[in-house]
Amino acid sequence: MKPRDLLYTARDVLRDMLRFDAAADAVLSRLFRAKPQLGKTDRQILADTVYQVLRHLRLFQTLAATDESIGGAMELRLAILGWSGNAQSLHAALSPEQLEWRKRMLAQDAMSLPEAVRWSLPEWLAAALQANYGAEYPALAQAMLRPAPLDLRVNVQKTRREAVLDVFARLNLPAQPTPYSPWGVRLAGKPALQDLTVFREGWVEVQDEGSQLLAVLLAPRRGEMVVDFCAGAGGKTLALGAMMRSTGRLYAFDVADYRLAKLKPRLLRSGLSNVYPVAIAHERDERVKRLAGKVDRVLVDAPCSGLGTLRRNPDMKWRQKPEDVAELTTKQASILQSAATLLKPGGRLVYATCSVLPEENGGIVNAFLAAHPDFERVPADAVLRQQGVEGEGMVTQGDLQLLPNRHATDGFYAAVLQRRPTSSDRGEIDATFAD
Questions:
Q1: What is the per-residue pLDDT across 331-351, written as a single tens digit (0 to 9) for each?
Q2: Fewer beta carbons within 10 Å, N or C terminal of the chain?
Q3: Burial class (CB in 10 A: 0-12, 13-18, 19+), 153
Q4: What residues are labeled active site?
């Protein structure tokens, strides 16, 4: 597609996307299906342009509103400001007047603008981050504006991290081990993974390093019964299954059939045979109740606001509202309550979200512990050390707290809980969970 036509396609996509009635990636997928003639480079420019606009939406809208001399719809001016093609495509897409306008707008001193505008945050979220993170707020807000790197998890059921790094080196794809996860690889750029043998053969899966650490915290063992309570498309399920060396039974629960359907091809690539996907109607489903008191470990990656993933999903800050978060906390508390009933005495539960808001994180866990004296918090840094991961700087008040400005991961929270063993069970359980 000619660059100028691509610019106006970006305008049309933004017009659709800025209604915020669907996820940004879903809007793009719909466009790509409707326009199969778009080549790989065109798709990349379109995706990068609209995501750049979503990241900087409030700033770009403020800049564009100060000077309407080039005319056209606001979405066109936003697309001009966010254009992410190379210099050649930029000059081919924009008229001389548009080029000069873009240069003038982007040269303005954003430091003179209010912080929430400068960092393109809705007022309610800016206030929440400032209240909860204090002096760290500017660094966190700026880190959320940067695109996320491409993190992969090596499938230890099939290979070792060193072997994957050797493959990438031979392919001239810059890659390095992630600093925290023992299975993580961070790739530079955006290679077409689906074309690589290491991906097709199930050696690697796309998974943020922070997400990988949730499996480290749960630390399932061979032969155990484990439940991934909100499995989704199964990224963490596969990590757990590999840790279990494809032994025992690993149930992947989710309320959405379409999400579990995405697990099936990934499961085939992984080579795991211990995973059992189960669609449930809700957290109190009869199939959940049948496992009450029988499970060794449970992961609850609870549905949340997703505000820790703004590097990848910048539309979330515009789609979520305070009332949505309040509704989510009710759901999170209910899910944690139901998932906890599955555990044996001495069993471990990890409650996690990809949120940076304490009401979805420590607030949920602290309320649960206050109401359930048969559960106790286990210090996350101690669990990480047991698994060979240095947890310094990753743990706050006993729980894992990852932030993009500190750890170059998505924003993740995780608390490790244990159901207290009875006196008759304690000796056997201590031996089972000893490292």
A1: 999 999 999 999 999 999 999
A2: C
A3: buried
A4: 354
